[in-house]
Automatic annotation (TrEMBL):
Annotated protein name in UniProt: 8-oxo-dGTP pyrophosphatase MutT (NUDIX family)
Phylogenetic placement of the source organism: Bacteria, Bacillati, Actinomycetota, Actinomycetes, Kitasatosporales
Domain named Nudix hydrolase: residues: 7-141
CDD domains from the UniProt entry: NUDIX_MTH2_Nudt15
Source species: Kitasatospora kifunensis (Streptomyces kifunensis)
PANTHER family: 8-OXO-DGTP DIPHOSPHATES NUDT15 (PTHR16099), NUCLEOTIDE TRIPHOSPHATE DIPHOSPHATASE NUDT15 (PTHR16099:SF5)
Domain of life, per lineage: Bacteria
Length: 158
């Protein structure tokens, strides 16, 4: 018998940054998950299907959560965040969607109290940790990461 408990299954997902057409805002939702304090969040969720890429998961989750259909081929991974704050490792891809001002619908009322486009200069608080870290891959002045959270940026000049 091993003295160490079995490792928890990692969570693998994508957070989706949907900029406004004018580039001055972003889509966020009021996250209302039972058992957690309310926060603001980007659309996103788990990579659910065998063979699904981060871009495909981002496009699917965006459509499932908001009704907004944007092509996976136009999504771009900016980097990944590894955190150990949820009782298991969580790997979240920061995915940049093409700009859109399409109407966002609440399709999962058990998890979201509404979608809004907010100015980048007035992001609401408190922000769900993984969403804040994903935004840090896109915004010029990211907030510092807490202990146990690691951020890795992709590079396009390789």
């Amino acid at each position: 018998m091993s003295p160490h408990p079995a490792p928890a299954t990692p969570l693998i997902g994508a957070g989706v940054i949907v900029p406004t057409l004018d580039g001055r805002g972003v889509l966020v939702g009021r996250r209302t998950v039972t058992g957690e304090p309310p926060t603001w969040s980007l659309p996103g969720g788990k990579v659910d299907h065998p063979g699904e890429s981060f871009e495909q998961a981002a496009a699917r989750e965006l459509a499932e959560e908001t009704g907004i259909q944007l092509p996976a081929e136009q999504m771009r991974v900016l980097g990944v965040i590894l955190d150990h704050l949820a009782d298991r490792p969580r790997l979240t891809a920061a995915v940049l969607a093409p700009p859109s001002d399409a109407v966002a619908e609440v399709t999962e009322p058990h998890a979201c109290g509404g979608w809004e486009r907010v100015a980048l200069t007035a992001l609401p608080e408190p922000m769900f940790g993984p969403s804040a870290w994903v935004l840090g891959h896109w915004l010029p002045d990211p907030a510092p990461l807490p202990p146990g959270v690691f951020s890795y940026r992709t590079t396009s000049d390789i």
